[in-house]
Amino acid sequence: MFCDYICDMTKVYLNKRIQPRIASGHPWIYNNEIDRVAGPIEAGDIVEVYYFDGQLAGRGYINPDSQIMIRLLTRKREEINASFFHQKISEAWAYRQKLGYTENCRLVFGEADGLPALIVDKFNDYFVIQTLSLGIEKWKAEIIAAINTIFNPKGIYERNDVPVRELEGLIQQKGFLTDPFPTEIIIKENDLQFYVNIETGQKTGYFLDQQDNRRAIQNIVKGADVLGAFTYTGTFEIHAAHYGAKSVLGIDISESAVEQANKNAVLNKLDHIVKFEAMNAFDVLKNWGREGKKYDVVMLDPPAFTKSRNNIDKAVTGYKEINLRGMQLLRNGGFLVTSSCTNLVSPELFLDTIYMAARDAKKRIRQVTYQTQSSDHPIIWGMENTHYLKFLIVEVCDR
Ligand code: SAH
Q1: Ligand 1 centroid – CA 253 distance (Å)
Q2: Range 159-173 burial, b when 16+ CB lie within 10 A, else e
Q3: 293 DSSP assignment
Q4: SS3 category, 265
Q5: Ligand 1 atom having least distance to the Cα of 206
Q6: Pair 51, 57: CB distance under 8 Å
Q7: pLDDT digits over 97-148, tens only?
Q8: pTM of the model
Q9: Edge-first strand listing for the sheet containing 155-160
Q10: Of 93, 225, 255, 334, which is most buried, counting CB atoms within 10 Å of its CB?
Q11: DSSP state of 345
């Protein structure tokens, strides 16, 4: 990246109307927000960005083939090089440590850490990375070098098997970025242990974003019969058993998730309390309600029902249905623990949907807890899509 010094970097000038959004901190520049470009553009290159009035907006990477044409990496005239990435990743780690994270955390949460489209999850000595845009993919070697220097890890794995990369003209791929290592590791969370398969698990292998929320169930599950649906590897359910539930049943449609969940129950010596079965949660919630089965606590943590704005209505219908059925499965005064992980459904829309479900189920609900993702996934105010997880506990009473 000597080029910064010996040749002029391509300059991009923005439209007038986008200035306030970029000036207030948003790092994305769409292709229709650019006024003019001075210099050649090669996809993935670093360019210097100016506001309409000629003031420096910052430096970022460009991809003319992507709808988000530029993502800013800095607001200064600084060099983007290996030490830039080292510095950013060190800062991200220092922030997590300040918040109390020691072993496992989302170390880099993309834009929220000033490293657009980069995800790094730390599972004690192992790291899983995703480079979700061309501009960040180009710096993969520098990012790996920084992780190696800062952490001296036992292994780094790439989980770039995600469709979003194709929007950037990248292929999907996964594999080792260090010498190979056994990819089923064990992590600790809230005094419990969990197997995480970073090669075959969903996303990066484990949902770190719910780690604080799993603790939030600790009082309401004591002595309770608990039903969990969309359990993945059983983290919430095993927490419920650990916190004193009488019985816990977890349902997931994925056979491999259920197998892993049952293994996690054994690992924590809680398999006499918690069991997992592979079933479709939509069927279970519907049929068991009809059969009159009852629980003290129902926990729902479904996948994102939509990845596109065009399907929000369908997603809301899905959320409403499972929450309504979940409420119908509760004994009077039981608790519904419910989540939504898509940023396309806003917190307001999610809460409204739960309210509609309660009305249709003829239940009164009383809010116990309302939270979002854990703080290793920071929410940047002004960047709505960084606020994606909704987590709600309500007490549900007959009307
Ligand atoms: N609660 C988990 C994360 C759940 S992710 C945790 O904290 O780790 C959502 C899960 O829903 C996935 O494991 C997926 O396999 C499952 N799933 C998707 N559709 C389903 C369906 N129709 N019935 C049951 N499970 C489903």
Answers
A1: 7
A2: bbebeebeebebeee
A3: -
A4: helix
A5: 8
A6: yes
A7: 999 999 999 999 999 999 999 999 999 999 999 999 999 999 999 999 999 9
A8: 0.95
A9: 104-109, 118-123, 126-131, 155-160, 173-176
A10: 334
A11: S
Tens-place pLDDT, residues 212-266 = 999 999 999 999 999 999 999 999 999 999 999 999 999 999 999 999 999 999 9
Find the Cα–Cα–Cα–Cα dihedral 89, 114, 185, 197, rounded to 10°: -150
- The span from the CA of 332 to the CA of 177, in Å, is 52
Closest among 74, 30, 34, 78 to 52, alpha carbons compared:
34
CA distance 236 to 231: 7
User: What are the tokens at 214?
Assistant: 């799993």
Q: Residue 229 corresponds to which amino acid?
A: A
Instruction: Give the residue whose CA is nearest to atom 9 of ligand 1.
Output: 303
**Do residues 194 and 267 touch, judged by C-beta distance below 8 A?**
yes
Displacement of CA 143 from its chain's centroid (Å): 20
Q: Cβ(252) to ligand 1 under 6 A?
A: yes
Q: Which domains does the chain have, with CATH numbers?
A: 2-74 (2.30.130.10), 82-185 (3.30.750.80), 207-398 (3.40.50.150)
